[in-house]
User: What shape does this take?
Amino acid sequence: MINKTTNQKAWLFVIPVIVLVAFNALIPLMTVVNYSVQDTFGNNLFFWEGTKWFEEVLSSPRFHQSFMRQMAFTGTILLIEIPLGIAVALAMPRKGPWVSVCLILMALPLLIPWNVVGAMWNIFALPDIGLLGYSLNAIGIDYNFTQGPIAAWITTVMMDVWHWTSLVVLLAYAGLVSIPDAYYQAAKIDGASNWAVFWRIQLPKMKRVLTIAILLRFMDSFNIYTEPFVLTGGGPGNTTTFLSIDLVKIALGQFDLGHAGAMSLIYFFIVLLVSWVFYTLMMRNET
Assistant: This one.
């Protein structure tokens, strides 16, 4: 029998990662936890409040309304971006020089900074000088996202779809190109239709990458702030005031740190819980 020696020195390489995570995640999180159970009137004086702020947030109509707007936005973009991303990935070539061209074009929106995306769409959608706004009004459609709640909502959704569908496309395409040709050859011999090939071969083989895509888009959509803030500022009224925008208004606008701390933790646990439930349901039949 050969005696194997175990060398645990490799764990030393993990220490820098642990330190970075502590500074970038754990310490800020503990600061938020500290604010969520206390109140302050300045001068670095804090007063213990316990669960008061959590109770206020959970019973606040403002939080409920922001949460429902957030869920409606998240559900809308997922219903659009996932099928659209799959369709574009299926239409992309698998071989030849056009593969690189298509991949580069798909990656371009993802390289644009979030504040620039909001500024671009703000100019693009302006009713007087923007190409989109001016064109819609020219053909008789009354469009003004700065005053119309429906127009603001649709514009925000279109902006997110334009910006992030590429991520779904790239992940779906990676799943498609990893499918061995033997599956397609067998389907061709059996005389399977295009729909049967998609439903029985391509979609099941893309399950893992689509799970990642949906989880990433869900979490990103809940964290969205810069793009809608630059585009609409959360308006008109509160039409596009999602959870993140409302949280910043409470924390920085009202300087209500206890309320904001409790809200951010509830916000955090909602994202974790929904992501965990979704992942568990998607992967429960996996071996």
The chain has one domain: 61-283.
